[in-house]
Predict the structure.
Amino acid sequence: MRQIVNFNKKWAFTKNADHVPATMPQRWDFVTLPHSWNTIDGQDGDNDFYRGTCYYAKELLKSSLPEADQYYLEFNGANSSADVYVNGKHLAHHDGGYSTWRVNITEALEMQNLIVVAVDNSANETVYPQMADFTFYGGLYRNVNIIAVADSHFDLDYYGGPGIQVTPVIEGANAKVEIEVYVTNKKEEQTLVYTVKDAEGNVVANVSSDDTKVEVEIENVHLWHGRKDPYLYRAEVALVEGTEVIDGVCTRFGCRTFEIHPDNGFILNGEEYPLRGVSRHQDRWGFGNALLPEHHEEDMDLICEMGATTIRLAHYQHDQYFYDLCDERGLVIWAEIPYISKHMPTGRENTISQMRELVVQNYNHPSIVVWGLSNEITINGSDDDLIENHKILNDMCHEMDPTRLTTIACVSMCDLNDPYVQIPDVVSYNHYFGWYGGDTSMNGPWFDNFHKTFPNIPIGCSEYGCEALNWHSSEPFQGDYTEEYQAYYHEELIKQLFSRKYMWATHVWNMFDFGADARNEGGENGQNHKGLVTFDRKYKKDSFYAYKAWLSDEPFVHICGKRYVDRVEDVTKVTVYSNQPQVELFANGESLGVKEAADHFFYFEVPNAGVTELVAIAGDCKDESVIRKVEEFNEAYRLKEEGAILNWFDITAPEGYFSLNDKLGDILANPAGAALFAGIMGNVAGKQAAGFEMNEGMMQMMGGFTVLRLLTLMGGMMDMKFTKEQLLALNDQLNQIKK
């Protein structure tokens, strides 16, 4: 019977070697897995995190292993390429940093062994991802195990899969369940025993067979029904010789049907089941991607508290432990590979291998309903090779798994008529109207236009969001990074997206702030701050509660602006979120009235004098907050870019004239403004910003940036620095142009 030995403890690690050591290194640092070498430099900005080859080494006594015929070394995640050496012999190479893969080390083992793994996250043109808005943390950042098995065993070699595949088909009140296993070196005298158990452990089917594929029936099947009832069965298969169990595999599975309808959205088990949720990056502050089980559990608890019904697991294969949590908690999942941002003609084989691994390793998860082919891959345009690559992936997914659909996440400026948009079964778009360009009101009408133009293609929103840190204002505006603007933005998007029944899924970008080392913005470098929750998971931003008000059945009330205490105005707006029908707000014990709000957003005008203690009551729920009258604005609430040459409040902005604080799109719409910027735009076009080509589409998307914000970003992301004198001179010129 197989045994799994965890192999995480006490690896020697170094960044400073250039060859595989012949003996155990004495001067390397010791680490315990999971481990990443970019936990600091991958989260501090300037796009300077270490990318290269690092080495891990560990001694292994064969006598310490269980007695077995075959030994496999299993890696659950090594980013992004890795080579395995046992006693100096090269055994395997793997490309792809987010999937499980295994190496048979049996023949190379001696009594005493040195295991060395060279892990490489260097830039290259063959392994995805290479260009994206997140940090590519290097390391052995998930578990490493040794699997000890007999010569006859369930397969361990095929794309890191579990060796068992379960396909339920619902027929009336029952389910026909096909169970297929893959066996290495099966002997004639060996038989297979198939057992299916319900969630309570009762046997509902039991079959002995020589065949590696059987079908069993579950009568009166209990359906897996998302958050409402995530019921799971368990399939166990034993390889038996005589009375001895030689090997065994098991997997949980769920029985369910689903449909994605172009008018009615997502349908689960014949019932309309709106998919409203979030995207998730797996990293966190101080850990990078090297997460522990309790980190995954905390993420899942927060997502469920918010009331989400779906998660887009971006932009790569996540830990199997998290997929298991999704099954258990009933989240409907979009799973994808890191085919992102930059199409590489030399990377086709890697997209194929990563997709095969994703499907094979995750086939049994009932939570997964779509395979994501790519994300924003047309950001630098589309071509025949890109389209052919997508057709290959799309066809392969359908061949490997005819039970699920395929999808893509299109970049905002991707033409609706691009042939690439027609390839998958369903489509979603990443739109940031109201943050990067345009305004919030443009989101809903855009989707209406798509739905009208392509009424038979289900459309969703795969990304939308805006950044917020601990900055505050009573007059928030687009691009100010305040918690108040983020709350306003999401209020507007919730009302627009959730009211459109035809949208098959909506995914906020992002549930959590995440590492993006190329970013120097918002006053805290190295992160993308679009999360509804902070990078360390310690603070839920106000926008988190906006979603909870719409999606959660757990009664609650939340006063917004708890970090915005000092306020200068005599009467200030206070927003309250709740999923209860009425909210009453008290200021120093005096009621400011009872309000009703069908949209769950309750707005109060609050007199601001001295210190005011606020109490919100909604049914049995209560929340408290404090505001304080001040004469001058508290500068601690105002964004100050780290190392900024100028801040927006330092800039002269005469009434009726342009300044650096105006949006680029507004300036370019003015003939005099367009003429002024012609030279700057010409210098920028074609250059790289954190790997992204500044083409016409990118510049159009950035039309929602203020000129100051855009030029500051360029200074951090590309070799184009501006001095204070240059910026002030440009501002003087803008001050001469009437709006």
